[in-house]
Specification:
The protein is of the alpha/beta class and 326 residues long. The chain is built from 12 helices and 11 strands. It is globular and about 50 Å long. The structure holds alpha-D-ribofuranose and calcium ion (CA). The site of alpha-D-ribofuranose has 15 residues, from helix 1, helix 6 and helix 11.
Length: 326
């Protein structure tokens, strides 16, 4: 069982990542910290609580972290995730309360008190983690691994050069890369292979009410932009790839590289410069995910979404085949 903190900006793919984490007995989510990103913080923290409520997970505390990047003004992505971040799906207002402590202080407190180093999944801009590291550098020793959705070796999705999470707060990303924590970078090169094609959507829909139908609807709403922009056959499931890596890293392969963030060029700010062939000779600081078995990824996702959620005890690990016809 991996003790996990999830920092996120729900956002449709963040929401599905949370559901995947809740449905996976390998993970024990110890807290969720929302950050301003896909939509403003007021929505990301509310959406995180809505997803907890949907999954009937009431023992995972939800915190609000930073509402804006360290230096830049907040860039949001309503054009992808919808006006409030969960597509056109309307959820009831959550009864789960938002914690009053600042999410950064929760991260610091939890990591310092951890009996063993913890995993951190970052699914949005890295502002919260950067501030936590700046405020309390000693938390590094209690972070086993950060698995972040962010960056790319080749292209961007906000500009031609930069991926959204890094572009949104490039200075925070560079601080995390400089911090010495063990980082796995799940970039667009990978997540743009994890496409929710119509066949995969049909499988998800067959999981049934409420989860299967809701996730399928969320993905349909969320897919329009990327289908138009990239000609994909569906939506790329960025953030669930991070959770899948934590559950079963054999679905992926990684390559140890030196990575830094472009901070000067206005045209390329937020680009992750991945030294794939070690040309710089600089110390390698990131495990960059190099490949994904997309079919195994979707099998895992459907398996876990089909299990149902009970955070009080690990879900049973029956396969979803018994629940959805292949
Ligand atoms: O570039 C994709 C990433 O930015 C995803 O995490 C998405 O949710 C947004 O946060
Ligand atoms: Ca996200």
């Amino acid at each position: 069982m991996q003790n996990l903190l999830i920092d996120c900006d729900p956002g449709v793919d963040d929401a599905i990542a949370l559901l995947l984490a809740f449905g996976s007995p390998e993970l024990r989510v110890r807290g969720i910290v929302a950050v301003g990103g896909n939509v403003p913080l007021v929505h990301t923290q509310t959406n995180a609580r809505k997803i907890c409520e949907l999954a009937q997970v009431r023992d995972v505390p939800v915190y609000a972290g930073c509402d804006r990047p360290l230096l830049r003004s907040l860039t949001t992505a309503e054009y992808v995730h919808g006006a409030t971040g969960l597509g056109q799906v309307s959820f009831p207002e959550p009864t789960i309360a938002l914690q009053t402590q600042h999410g950064v202080d929760f991260m610091i407190e939890t990591l310092l008190a951890a009996e063993a180093p913890m995993k951190i999944a970052t699914l949005g801009p890295l502002t919260n983690l950067a501030v936590a590291l700046a405020k309390c550098p000693e938390i590094v020793k209690n972070i086993d691994q950060v698995v972040m959705m962010g960056g790319a070796t080749t292209h961007g999705n906000v500009t031609s050069s930069a991926e959204f999470n890094i572009y949104c707060d490039p200075h925070a990303a560079q601080m995390v890369l400089n911090s010495g924590v063990s980082i796995v970078m799940m970039g667009l090169d990978i997540t743009h292979q994890a496409i929710a094609t119509p066949d995969r959507l049909a499988t998800i829909r067959q999981i049934g009410e409420p989860i299967g139908a809701l996730v399928a609807k969320l993905l349909e709403d969320y897919s329009h932009h990327d289908i138009q922009q990239y000609g994909f056959a569906g939506a790329p499931l960025h953030d669930p790839c991070v959770i899948a890596y934590l559950i079963d890293p054999t679905i992926f392969t990684v390559r140890h590289c030196f990575v830094e963030v472009e901070l000067q060029s206005e045209a390329a700010i937020g680009r992750t410069i991945v030294d794939w062939y070690h040309a710089s000779g600089k110390p390698k600081n990131v495990q960059v995910v190099a490949t994904i078995d997309s079919d195994r990824f979707y099998q895992l996702l459907c398996d876990r979404l089909g299990l149902g959620f009970d955070s009080a005890q690990p879900a049973k690990t029956q396969t979803a085949k018994t629940r959805i016809e292949r």
